[in-house]
Amino acid sequence: MNKMRVSAVQFGLRDVDSFEEFGRQVEHHVRNASEYGTQFLLFPEFLTTPLLSIGGGLSGDPIGKLPDYTDAYTGLFGRLARDYGTWIVGGTHVTRSGGQLRNTAFLFAPDGSVRTQDKLHVTPTERSDWNMKEGEGVQVFDTPYGTIGVLTCYDIEFPEIVRMVRAKGADVIFCPSCTDDRHGFHRVRYCCHARAVENQIYVVTTGTVGSLRRVDFMRANYGQAVVITPNDIPFPPRGILSEGEINEEMLITADLDLTLLEEVRRSGSVFTWRDRRTDLYPDWK
């Protein structure tokens, strides 16, 4: 297939009293996306942090409590992907591997299979306050609609890793994100545009909105979903197919035409992938 319909959720973080309450909010967005015939649905980074508020108190449960919900999280999203026939990037969820915490993105397929991609670059807050460890490798995922990559928030600020994913065949990067202020938001947003231009790919990104009053470091969020294209004639001049209203809980949807990527790579105004000077700087290999 040469086209895919994608949606992205600006997920409103709010304190919850049970996993079931969180699950109902998630399913609402999946059901909504299904009404538009969405084939790929993206949720933001740190999607499951509302579960830390279940413990109550001013600071909720510690981040190390989140891996206890992994089975419930994968069960919920696995069921939703099967029931609604949709590929779902379930944002990220904190997992534990070898005694260390990881920020892990999950891709749930309609056939019940699950793939994961750990965040490869962790922020200072993740490292010092949450004692999180970076991932150790990057991969791409083949789907009936095309080859995709999943790179989380800070990852998109490193052009080398996106070059690697593009070299492995990805035409679409899904970038779940979580930023607490406008500075962080625009760092990620501008880098998403740069990566789309550099690699002649689509980038679909979204972030958390709302506030968790009982969870440290999640008390403020600034986010917006957007579907980004290369800046060339077949696409919108600003490189934006669709975008949401900043800091509103909502869903956006757009159709990605992969044949247009091949067109601009072959005969576009510029050839930013083909014309890279590997004689002057190392290629992704």
Q: What labels would you give this structure?
A:
285 residues; alpha/beta; Nitrilase/N-carbamoyl-D-aminoacid amidohydrolase; 6-stranded mixed beta sheet; 6 helices
Strand content: 25-35%
**Mean pLDDT reading:** 96
| Alpha carbon gap, first and last residue | 29 Å
Q: Supply the CATH class.
A: Alpha Beta
Strand order, biggest sheet? 6-5-4-3-1-14
Second rung of CATH, namely the architecture: 4-Layer Sandwich
Low-confidence region ranges: none
Strand runs, count: 14
Structural class: alpha/beta
| CATH topology heading | Nitrilase/N-carbamoyl-D-aminoacid amidohydrolase
Can you summarize the main beta sheet? 6 strands, mixed
Helical residues, percent: 25-40%
Q: Could you give the order of the helices and strands? A: EEHEHEEEHEEHEHEEEEEH
Structural write-up:
The protein has about 280 residues and is α/β, with parallel strands linked by helices. The protein has one domain: 4-Layer Sandwich (Nitrilase/N-carbamoyl-D-aminoacid amidohydrolase). The protein has six helices and 14 strands. A hairpin with a 5-residue loop joins strand 5 and strand 6. Helix 1 packs parallel to helix 2 and helix 4 runs parallel beside helix 5. It is globular, with a radius of gyration of 18 Å. The mean pLDDT is about 95.
SSE topology sketch:
Elements: E1 3-10, E2 12-13, H1 19-34, E3 40-42, H2 70-84, E4 87-97, E5 100-108, E6 114-118, H3 124-128, E7 141-143, E8 146-150, H4 159-167, E9 172-177, H5 182-199, E10 202-207, E11 209-210, E12 226-228, E13 240-243, E14 250-257, H6 258-267
Parallel strand pairs: 1-3, 2-11, 3-4, 8-9, 9-10
Antiparallel strand pairs: 1-14, 4-5, 5-6, 7-8, 10-12, 12-13
Helix pairs in contact: 1-2, 4-5
